[in-house]
Amino acid sequence: MMARRALRSVSEPPDPPAPPRIVTVRRLRRRRWHRLPGVRRLVALRRRVEGRLAAAAKLETAPPERFGFRFVDASRLFFVTALFHRWYFRVESHGLGSLPAGPVLLVANHGSHVLAWDGAMIVTACLMDAETPRLAHGMAEHRLMSLPILGKVARRIGAVAGNRAACEALLRSSAVVLTFPEGVKALRKPFRARYRLAPFGHGFVHVALATGAPIVPVAVIGAEEEAPLLANPSWLARLLRTPVAPLAPTLFVPLPVKYRLHFGAPIHVDGPPTEDVVGRHVATVRSELQALVRRGLACRRHAFF
């Protein structure tokens, strides 16, 4: 009986396979605005931003998401800054090819008063103009990073609070870090003192000595004219809970100045982190950056073209 059942089960044909599932992709309906001039260029720019951002994030040995970076949000924000970079400020990058591989500490002069367009253009240039795209992490002031909107947006694009621990952690993961050693002192400068560097803080040299990362000075030409400072009332700063409250004639809209970024030669620092050694390195970097700013000003024809 058991043999007959086994023979019958073997002789019976197997069940026919299920028909393959046919997946149909619905073709998107063509809208009228698809015919508008420039739409293809915008789509191509968006794809280029996403591709270069993905390649830049892979160069870091530790995921940048640990400090609040989000790829989807960052790709959208970098798309916006790329539009300003290409068509509004028409940024020119000089010396970006000498940016070394591995960890780099960018030290730049601070000229944007209302919004940090100078920092946005530097990190966008590192992403879009460099032969190898790099994701530059801006070091922001603690009180600015604590703001509910600006702080969240800054973290999503890769910025971190300006403390040594975060900066050293990024550099040890082969990242690029951008810092403004003038700090908020640069935001209080009157228009007549434009492109004159304020005194530097010493924290960036301590970080460079601890990590061995080279320092690359970056001269930003154009940011001082984008929103000339009219006033900086302390009562408004207290109301907004910000270190400064600069008022410009254009409010939050920057003037369409032409940005020119000049990346200098890498500066390597060494020695014990004593007060004398650190002070000497700070003076050297500040002198190199001031000379780079002067050369950049001598090369430009006009602030707007």
Question: Describe it for me?
Answer:
Helices cover 41% and strands 10% of the residues. A seven-stranded mixed β-sheet has the order 1-7-6-2-5-3-4, with helices on both faces. It has helices at residues 2-11, 39-58, 71-88, 117-128, 142-145, 150-157, 164-172, 203-211, 223-226, 234-240, 275-299, and strands at 92-94, 104-108, 136-140, 160-161, 176-179, 215-221, 260-263. The protein starts with a helix and ends in a 6-residue tail after the last helix. The longest helix is centred in the C-terminal third of the chain and has 25 residues, at 275-299. It has a single domain, classed as Glycerol-3-phosphate (1)-acyltransferase. The protein is an alpha/beta fold and 305 residues long. It contains eleven helices and seven strands. Residues 1-11 and 18-28 have low confidence and may be disordered.
What is this structure's SSE topology?
Elements: H1 2-11, H2 39-58, H3 71-88, E1 92-94, E2 104-108, H4 117-128, E3 136-140, H5 142-145, H6 150-157, E4 160-161, H7 164-172, E5 176-179, H8 203-211, E6 215-221, H9 223-226, H10 234-240, E7 260-263, H11 275-299
Helix pairs in contact: 2-3, 3-4, 7-8
Number of domains as seen in the coordinates: 1
CATH class categorisation: Alpha Beta
What's the arrangement of strands in the largest beta sheet?
A: 1-7-6-2-5-3-4
Q: Give the fraction of residues assigned to helices.
A: 40-55%
Order of helices and strands: HHHEEHEHHEHEHEHHEH
Number of strands: 7
Give the overall shape: globular
The main pleated sheet reads as: 7 strands, mixed
What average pLDDT do the residues reach? Answer: 87
Number of helices: 11
What is the fold-level CATH name, i.e. the topology?
Glycerol-3-phosphate (1)-acyltransferase
CA distance, first residue to last residue:
97 Å
Return the structural class. alpha/beta
What is the second-level CATH architecture? Answer: 3-Layer(aba) Sandwich
Strand content: 5-15%
> Nearest-angstrom radius of gyration?
26 Å
Low-pLDDT stretches are 1-11, 18-28
